[in-house]
Amino acid sequence: MTASELQQDIAFQIRALRRDRGLTQEALGERCGMLQAAVARIESAKNGNLAQVRTLLEIANGTGARLVIRFADVVEEDE
Questions:
Q1: In whole angstroms, how far apart are CA 13 and each of 54, 58, 77?
Q2: Considering only CA atoms, which of 48, 28, 44 is closest in space to residue 36?
Q3: In this predicted model, what pLDDT tens digit does every residue of 16-63 receive, in sequence order?
């Protein structure tokens, strides 16, 4: 998997999670303290911020591991 493919996968997951939660890009942006345009850039995988993903991928490839990034629901523990 290339860094570009991984970034596209992350963008897809973010978009799917947002839609699953019934949020618009604007609503998600408000919750995250960012503009709708920033959410759109992230979801389109064109934000140009590949350095961190590329580094993670290089580590995974260098160790023979597979980099897997997923969003999961938070399970709250009983108090």
A1: 18, 21, 25
A2: 28
A3: 888 988 999 999 888 888 889 888 888 887 655 544 576 667 777 878
Tokens 């963008």 label which residue? 11
Residue pointed to by tokens 């260098």: 62
Q: Is the CB of residue 49 less than 8 Å from the CB of residue 11? A: no
Amino acid occupying residue 18: R
Alpha helices in the chain (DSSP H): 3-20, 25-32, 36-43, 51-63
Spatial separation of the C-alpha atoms in residues 44 and 12, rounded to whole Å:
8
Q: Do the beta carbons of residue 34 and residue 41 sit within 8 Å?
A: no
Q: What does the pLDDT read at residue 51?
A: 41
Q: What pTM, to 2 d.p., does this model score?
A: 0.65
Asked if residues 27 and 33 have their Cβ atoms less than 8 Å apart, the reply is no
